[in-house]
Amino acid sequence: MRIALVCPYAWDDPGGVQVHVRELGQRLRGRGHDVLGLAPVRRAVVESWVHGVGRPVDLTYNASNAPIDPRPWSAVQVRRELRGFRPDVVHVHEPFAPSTSLWAVLTSPAPIVATFHSGATRSRLYDVVAPALRMLARRLAVRIAVSDTAARFARGRLAGRFEIVPNGLDVERWARAEPRADLVGLSGAKLLFCGRLDERKGFPTATRAFLRLAGERSDLRLVVAGDGPDRSAVDRFPEDVRVRVTMLGDVPNVDLPPVHAACDLYLGTSVGGESFGIVVAEAMAAGLPVVASDIPGYDEVVTDGVDGLLVPPRDPGAVAAAAARVLDDPALAERLRGGGRDRVRGFDWSVVVERLEELYERAARLR
Fold first, then answer.
1. CATH 3.40.50.2000 fits 2-168+348-364, yes or no
2. What is the residue extent of each domain of the chain?
3. In the predicted model, is pLDDT for residue 304 greater than 80?
4. Cα separation of 259 and 206, whole Å?
5. Whether pTM exceeds 0.85
């Protein structure tokens, strides 16, 4: 098949949707499909199958950064790319994001498969324009949500049927990674936080939990992969604690498995707005016990006491207590590792891409 994949966010920025679309495109190409990727870009694209359309503007949505191109004249370029490629199906991610995705919905010459990723609990703008979006949604041949949480958010405004297809994951890539050498050289147990360093992703909660634990555990360390406005939170730590924090900055997703392999416990402390929790699934695939917030999205990935421990969001004391349980109980840690590995098998790309191919074929028949 000829499949166009459309991402509304800056292709060269870190983000779960970008990782999902990039890896999906690679899998589809590996299975013999002809694939075109479209997304706004900041710089030249490495992948030959991806074409940059427009330049992103950083806007705030769902208490996080959304690097989209809202300029409507970008629709001309999107239309030109799609008509030149002549796809059998166009797979649009976040179809109503006012960026490349929306322009593809408006101009697509082929049936549209749409994936909804958002885990927002509310959106005033979405509510205001929902009547218009319901009419536009008639152009969607197949509607997908990455979780029940994402489906509830979209269904409440658009109605209709949604297929649940989770984010894909290369389980083997995470499971077989060798530990990153510079982290292996650090003595003591290592907690890992990965993601944007801001309030919604729970970085302040993670750092406060570490601060509680560090006073009692002189060899405990915190490894941080990511960047954001709260990066300076650890600068206020006492010096003897601050030196046990390793700030890696932004780490491309492809380079994260060795980081995970070098650590002992993952802190997934987001406070809300998550549709799925791919970062939690990645940690489980890497064999890390997980302590995660009990929030919608994460609770569809983690079953408390089976493949991770769930704690109330914004509660550093609960995070610290759960982490201490895992660190002090090797049998519990091993049980959570095994449960996590079993859980993520259903998210492997070998499962997800076959399900998507079925939906592409269903959409293509509507041409």
1. yes
2. 2-168+348-364, 171-346
3. yes
4. 17
5. yes
